[in-house]
Design brief:
About 75% of the residues lie in helices and about 0% in strands. By secondary structure, the chain is an all-alpha fold. Keywords: Membrane, Transmembrane, Transmembrane helix.
Length: about 40
């Protein structure tokens, strides 16, 4: 493999981060709900 430098523009990261944040929040919320339901 050669030293290929793939430079990703910063503006490409922005929509990815915006999409990832709600997914992570939803996962943590669902996990929290699952833990609460198990305790009851």
């Amino acid at each position: 493999m050669g030293p290929v430098k793939r430079r990703v523009p910063d503006w490409l990261y922005f929509p990815v981060v915006l999409l990832l944040i709600p997914v992570l929040v939803l996962k943590s919320l669902l996990a929290g709900i699952g833990i609460i339901r198990r305790k009851k």
